[in-house]
Amino acid sequence: MPSERTTWAIITGEYPPQPGGVSGYSWVVAHALAAAGDDVHVFAPGTGLVEIASPVHVHRLSDRFGRKGRRELYAGLQALPQPRRAVLQFVLQSFGRRALNLPFVRSLQRLHGFPLWIYFHEFALEDTPSESPLRRAHAFATRVLARMAARAADLAFVSTPAWTPLVAAAAPACPIRWVPIPSNIATECEPAEVARLAAKYRSPAGGEIVGHFGTYRMRDSRAFLEEALPALVHGAADRRALLLGRGSDAFAARLIEREPALAGRVIGTGDLDAQTLANHLAVCDVLIQPYAEGATTRRGSLFAGLALGVPTVTTLGPLSEDLWAASDAALFAPPNDVAAMVALAETALADPQLRADLGARARALYQSRFDVARTVEALRQN
Question: In whole angstroms, what separates CA 5 from the centre of its chain?
Answer without folding.
Answer: 29
